Amino acid sequence: MITINHLCKTFRLRSGDVCAARDMNLDIHEGEIYGVIGYSGAGKSTLVRCINLLETPDDGEMTIDGTTVVIRSGRVFLREGGAEKPASEKQLNALRRGIGMIFQQFNLLDRSTVADNVAYPLRYTGMSRADIDARVRELLALVDLTDKADVYPSQLSGGQKQRVAIARALANRPRILLSDEATSALDPDATESILALLRDLNRKLGLTIVLITHEMSVIKAICQRVAVMEDGAVVEEGEVYDLFAHPVQPITKRFVQSASPLGKIDKMIVEGSPLLRVGPGGYLVKLLFHRDCVGDSLISDVSRRFGVNLNIVLANVEEIQGVALGGMIAAVEGAPEAVQAALDYLRDKHVSVEVIARG
Amino acid sequence: MVEFIKAIMPNVYAYRSRFFQSCEATLQMFVIAGLISFALGLLFGVVLTVTREGGIRPNRLIYRVLDVFVNVFRSIPFVILLIFLIPFTRTVLGTAIGVKGAIIPLVFGVVPFFTRQVEAALAGVSPGKLEAARSMGSGTMGLIFRVYLHEAVPDLIRVTTITAISLIGLTTMAGAVGAGGLGSFAINYGQNQQHQDIVNVCVVVLLIFVCFLQALGSFLARKTTNRKLFARTEK
């Protein structure tokens, strides 16, 4: 749906050059919710703004919903049937209309009613007033704000404002929605309801969503795939589940820790928590269960089968994209051969086993 | 009633037709110069906002030229500007006196001031709103009329009120150099002939006018903040 190749963007500021995108490559599939996570200044906002060309990249190539845009030295060209023509402002505006966007600060017009805000992208497009009214009603129903049509934004809560912004972004029936920290200014309840709405729209309309955030919990809640950005580059990318199960880069580990109790295990190991001490001859192991092997019976099974004691220090199971991800720190004590055999058995059952300490 | 007026302000009564003519002249200058200045100031303010570096349609040349023009005319004191512009006014309008002769200096005096005020009002429109409108495919004109001028209405009303009040001040100054109006009436018939009641009445009339403008401006600004004018009040 969105393919980005070799995208570069550098801001030339008085204080020096800031590289917001260095040779960025991304492939976002149709109908998926794709997350982009990073700390502020990592270049995520620049990335989404390049997708709808609010920001003109320096160089690169993007194919967005079938339209190929080539940028060379800050000039935008459209590729049609092999030929490249400079893109006019009008063409770019038409392109932007095909991509919806929502923002952290909602950016509604304060002097327009909810209905007028939603109608904004439809006005002056040749659409009749009756058609606009009908479409606005339809959109407000979609975001569950039918009764607020004549209210002004100042009378709405943050979550409601974001719903209006979503309705407005979808007015032109875009197939792509860009979300720039859309839940970052909302309380936890509103965040949850907006994320649920996005997931719903993704399923109902087949909407491709590119979601920018600095909160891993948001990614965990609705994204299928995620790119981790640092300093203008994607440092790690993949299925959200895999990232949670096996974060590789230090920054990814930090994000995972922030959103998952499992992350605390790593933190406790680093900090040498007293909970993680084992008796003489014992092993302290970290077990990660994924996909199909989450289940407590495995532990008691091992305990019985090999005559070892498994003392669970810390355990957690959570669901990511409908798949369970479990992790555990356990002290294993028993005869050395029995412990070895028990750990081998667990590995056989696709549990990743890592010995953290020996007593 | 007439007896009462005669008793407390005999000179005003004696020169009453002059007084009404003066009120009319002041009002004429205010309305004509005001309307022209409003249109020009709004235009220039928008152009400066749009063409500045980082604006929605940056254009160095247009911005620099307009910026310098505004700065130059803003730094000339109005009384000097009045006499400075006499030859120009005479060439353009054929006369430099009376209400007609006062319009050009008034416009030159007010437009730079109002342009800066408009610029400040438009600067209050959050960049996020512009960005959102751009993401929905609005072009330059759409951004100007549907975002800038739409969202800045309460602030534009406020700065228009401030400018209108300072325009009244300028019309009386123009009166001092031959444009007529309440300013020259107060000087020629009041001050010069030592008729304090005439000066007093001029002060009161201007005071009432200014208060009325301020009240109207404040009312409209309040009525347009976060909503349309004449919007239905929400339950």
Helicity of chain A, as a percent range: 25-40%
Oligomer: heterodimer
Q: What is the strand tally of chain A?
A: 16
C-alpha geometry of chain B: flat
**Which CATH-level-2 architecture of the largest domain in chain A?**
3-Layer(aba) Sandwich
The ordered H/E elements of chain A are EEEHEEEEHEHHHEHEHEEHHHEHEEHE
Jot down its keywords:
heterodimer; A: Rossmann fold; Alpha-Beta Plaits; 2 domains; six-stranded mixed β-sheet; 16 strands; elongated; B: mainly alpha; MetI-like fold; 0% strand
Short description:
The complex is a heterodimer of chains A (359) and B (235). By secondary structure, chain A is of the alpha+beta class.
Topology (elements, then pairings):
The complex is a heterodimer of chains A (359) and B (235).
Chain A (H helix, E strand, L loop, with lengths): L1 E12 L2 E13 L4 E5 L6 H8 L7 E6 L2 E6 L2 E6 L2 E4 L2 H9 L1 E5 L10 H6 L9 H14 L15 H12 L6 E5 L7 H18 L2 E6 L2 H7 L2 E6 L2 E7 H6 L4 H10 L1 H11 L11 E8 L6 H10 L2 E12 L2 E11 L2 H13 L2 E8 L1
Parallel strand pairs in A: 3-10, 3-11, 8-9, 9-10
Antiparallel strand pairs in A: 1-2, 1-4, 4-5, 5-6, 6-7, 11-12, 13-15, 13-16, 14-15
Chain B lengths: L1 H7 L1 H5 L1 H36 L8 H16 L2 H7 L1 H8 L4 H26 L3 H9 L4 H12 L1 H27 L2 H10 L4 H29 L11
Helix pairs in contact in B: 3-4, 3-7, 3-10, 3-11, 4-7, 5-10, 6-7, 7-10, 8-9, 10-11, 10-12, 11-12
Could you walk me through the main structural features you see in this protein, from its secondary elements to its overall organization?
The complex is a heterodimer of chains A (359) and B (235). Chain A has 359 residues and is α+β, with helices and mostly antiparallel strands. Helices cover 35% and strands 33% of the residues of chain A. Chain A folds into 2 domains: 2-98 and 174-259, 3-Layer(aba) Sandwich (Rossmann fold), CATH 3.40.50.300; 267-358, ACT domain (Alpha-Beta Plaits, 2-Layer Sandwich). In chain A, the strands form 3 sheets. Chain A has a 6-stranded antiparallel β-sheet with strand order 2-1-4-5-6-7, covered by helices on one side. In chain A, strands 8-9-10-3-11-12 form a 6-stranded mixed β-sheet, with helices on both faces. In chain A, a hairpin with a 2-residue loop joins strand 6 and strand 7. Chain B has 235 residues and is mainly α. Chain B has one domain: MetI-like (MetI-like fold). Chain B is built from 12 helices and no strands. Chain B has helices at residues 2-8, 10-14, 16-51, 60-75, 78-84, 86-93, 98-123, 127-135, 140-151, 153-179, 182-191, 196-224. Chain B is flat, with a radius of gyration of 21 Å. Classes of the chains: A alpha+beta (359), B mainly alpha (235). The A-B interface holds A 52, 54, 89-90, 93-94, 96-97, 99-101, 103, 105, 107-113, 120-121, 123-124, 150-155, 165, 168-169, 171-172, 178 and B 126, 128-129, 131-139, 142, 146-147, 150-151, 153, 224, 226-228, 231-232, 234.
